[in-house]
Amino acid sequence: MKTIVLLALVGLGAQLVDGSLGMAYGVTSTTLLLAIGTNPAAASATVHLAEIGTTLASGVAHWRFGNVDWKVVAKIGLPGAIGAFAGATVLSHLSTEVAAPVMALILLALGLYLLIRFTLRGIDRRNLGKPVRKRFLAPLGLVAGFVDATGGGGWGPVGTPALLASGRMEPRKVIGSIDTSEFLVALAASLGFLFALGNQGIDFAWVAALLIGGLIAAPIAAWLVRHVPPRLLGSLVGGMIVLTNTRTLLRSDWIDAPDATRYACYALIYVVWAAAVAWSFREYRKDGARETADALAAEAARLAETDAPGDATRADGATVTAGRPSAPTD
């Protein structure tokens, strides 16, 4: 029962993160399932089955808040589904001894990306509003879908930054469109796992727990996407994923590091993680101060323009220009 409650809380927290950042539901949930000893293919299958419900709810919520570009959803979602089905099939045919370190490596890379991306980088708005080309979206969807299924997550960490980097969509529409198209990816990956594995190793009570937590969080996350500081949240989540998957790798048969080495690595990760979170918070405060100053300057300029002396007409018919009357008109 404790495991079920824990998974429900993980589903809730993961969906809050995913709905706010446009990524990390699968990465967060799969990382936890691996940490408690779940078979890699079964962990990915469990998460993707839960995501069928959470992504549907998240998509509806984002649509109601006007965060979805349906053309982008179609152009990236269908190739993503193809990539996800292929990835599920590949992962299902790997042995546990090989699959666990492989998945941990993928998750570690995604965690590092999250940590670095949200700690150091902002959003390029120079091309905002320009259409996103299909020849860019289709390959992106194919790769992101494959990584998502083989790594137990990755649709958001691959797709969201790529769309943000293009600078052609508002951040909230990037997140809403990625979350909505993920329904197709989750459905295709789940079908791939069920065809390859049947229900072997899949605990449907765990699926239900993750689903319930995610359903509760989905509408909250769609609202929070306008208010949560992404830099800070991304750094927090990225560090957690890096730490957990480093632990999995160091304890795997591939490395089997001694205790002293493992604890030294953990200490280093904690120090870097704390520094990244502190830096993100500092930059978030600086960004907020800059935005406030820019808004005040724009408002001051608008008021100055409104209050500037212009042409007016006196009662005797003379025109006043910049405070200097001309001769009265007949």
Automatic annotation (TrEMBL):
The chain crosses the membrane at residues 98-116, 136-155, 175-197, 204-225, 260-281. InterPro entries: TM_pro_TauE-like (IPR002781), TSUP/Inactive_protease-like (IPR051598). One of its GO terms (cellular component) is plasma membrane. It is a multi-pass membrane protein. It is found in: Cell membrane; Membrane. PANTHER family: MEMBRANE TRANSPORTER PROTEIN MJ0441-RELATED, MEMBRANE TRANSPORTER PROTEIN YTNM-RELATED. It comes from Modestobacter versicolor. It holds the Pfam family TauE. Belongs to the 4-toluene sulfonate uptake permease (TSUP) (TC 2.A.102) family. Its main location: membrane. Residues 307-330 are annotated as: Disordered. It comes from the Bacteria. This is Probable membrane transporter protein. The keyword Transmembrane helix applies. Keywords: Cell membrane, Membrane, Transmembrane, Transmembrane helix.
